[in-house]
């Protein structure tokens, strides 16, 4: 194989969700395309990398130069609710479902011995200031329902617990919509029983 | 979502084997990476698009400026065998298995009423010249075992059938290695019976 093409395939294969076979197909499609798709993609990527930065307030990626992101600038979002998530893709998921209308705060990771993520790696330095400045009265943890997620949630709560008049909440655990008991794991079933609601 | 990021995700989602979810993860990984991976990928892509061209002889993509590809320049490949394939990924597959040591010829597609591929879209103009100039004595069709593949094969044969002293062959059809009869389709079984070998 031509070494230049081989290098390009290797670079694509290192992207998440791609293996060498998918990367080959992508590179082949890009190199054989005659509509300028490859140049457009490369230039859009260079432009994005040069201009997209995390919002200094919440961590959401934005291209507003040195300023706050769309969420932090939107006064209609200042409803006193702050949703703490792991990363930007969680924000996108929540926005698509349109269940939350407050502000976000991206941790940028979860505490994990395996991945070596330490408390200092979490984006929580300005969290107490945000609670004061933005009149936050409820903090909603929307972290993964895993050991790392819960550990991180407890740690973040311990850091900001001194803040008065703030309610903490987390997403409910239980049987998913359309979920068949047959296919549920024991952990979810146990959480669903513990959290059963009176009728 | 930030419009610049959204546009970039849409561009990635249009690549083969990628959907919008995988594209989101890829864009997020690239934008959050701090090792310059996104710039390197974009620049490698721009460089490849600017320098990679199909070999004028066989159609294999190469970055040798205006010249022949690695296969056509390699004298050890001039063994009189020419393997006709649909596209470059088939060349890569055959090269990985190391079963063929001759030269290739890429058609660039298969005749197809559905896809609208006409005889004039096939890269066969110089095929007769190649047979003469490169002393080809065997042409091996390694096209997909489908209606389109077989139709294309018959068409290409009719075009070059006037060439004397050239044997034509195609890949064998039958039960794949490790294949269980239980899981074989009727078409393959029928081909395997028709092509049964005496012992």
From TrEMBL, chains A, B:
This is Recombination protein RecR. GO terms for biological process: DNA recombination; DNA repair. It comes from Candidatus Enterousia excrementavium. Belongs to the RecR family. GO terms for molecular function: DNA binding; zinc ion binding. HAMAP family: RecR. Residues 80-176 form the Toprim domain. The lineage of its organism: Bacteria, Pseudomonadati, Pseudomonadota, Alphaproteobacteria, Candidatus Enterousia. InterPro entries: DNA_Rcmb_RecR, Rcmb_RecR, TOPRIM_dom, TOPRIM_RecR. Keywords: DNA damage, DNA recombination, DNA repair, Metal-binding, Zinc, Zinc-finger.
């Amino acid at each position: 194989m031509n070494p230049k093409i081989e290098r390009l395939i290797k670079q694509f294969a290192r992207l998440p969700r791609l293996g060498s076979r998918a990367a080959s197909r992508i590179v082949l499609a890009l190199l054989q395309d005659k509509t300028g798709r490859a140049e457009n993609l490369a230039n859009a990527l260079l432009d994005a990398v040069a201009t997209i930065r995390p919002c200094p307030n919440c961590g959401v990626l934005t291209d507003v130069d040195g300023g706050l992101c769309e969420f932090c600038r939107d006064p209609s979002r200042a409803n006193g609710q702050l949703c703490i998530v792991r990363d930007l893709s969680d924000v996108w998921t929540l926005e698509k479902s349109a269940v939350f209308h407050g502000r976000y705060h991206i941790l940028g990771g979860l505490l994990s011995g395996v991945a070596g993520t330490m408390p200092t790696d979490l984006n929580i330095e300005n969290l107490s200031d945000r609670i004061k400045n933005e009149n936050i009265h409820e903090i909603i943890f929307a972290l993964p329902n895993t050991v790392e997620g819960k550990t991180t949630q407890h740690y973040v709560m311990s850091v900001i617990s001194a803040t008065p008049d703030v309610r903490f909440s987390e997403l409910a655990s239980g049987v998913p919509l359309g979920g068949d008991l047959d296919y549920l794991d024991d952990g979810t079933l146990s959480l669903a029983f513990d959290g059963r609601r009176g009728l």
